[in-house]
Write a structure and sequence with these properties.
Layout lengths: L11 E2 L6 E2 L2 H32 L19 H30 L4 H19 L3 H4 L12
Antiparallel strand pairs: 1-2
Length: 146
């Protein structure tokens, strides 16, 4: 039976029928997995934004400049490669975002808290520095959990 309200239990089914938690160890490991994937989602979004800034030819703030990113993109082939990399990053990021949304839709309170805490931790480490440089670029979020 699918829950339609938040519940607090160690027994939860996440995403697929075979991912069921019956013990506290399974439940805690699942919560840690949700947290880690949430942090990774924010990391991917950070990489995607930086790639978009790089492709636009805008300069990075000094705190996030690296020697490899200072090179200018030259030629149509390089631009195509950057567009392809951006598309792949967008696809992977969107897939992870939607999977996180579906995990939250299990309505388990622990899963919800783990994902929100993971997104907050990821934002703190990967997205909170140099946001002023990103304001000049319109970033299309793949889902609401960005």
């Amino acid at each position: 039976m699918m829950h339609m309200t938040f519940y607090w239990s160690r027994k939860v089914t996440l995403l697929i029928d075979s991912w069921k938690t019956d013990s506290w160890i399974d439940y805690v490991l699942s919560l840690v997995a949700c947290l880690v994937v949430s942090v990774f989602y924010q990391y991917l979004e950070n990489r995607r934004i930086r790639l978009k800034v790089f492709a636009a030819g805008k300069s990075f703030p000094p705190e996030i400049q690296t020697p490899l990113l200072r090179r200018r993109i030259a030629g149509d082939r390089a631009k195509l490669g950057v567009k392809l990399a951006g598309a792949v990053l967008f696809g992977v990021s969107s897939a992870i975002g939607y999977l996180l949304m579906l995990a939250v839709m299990s309505f388990n309170g622990g899963v919800f808290v783990a994902i929100v805490v993971g997104l907050a931790i990821g934002h703190f480490f990967f997205r909170s520095d140099g946001e002023d440089a990103y304001d000049a670029i319109v970033v299309d979020n793949s889902c609401a959990c960005a």
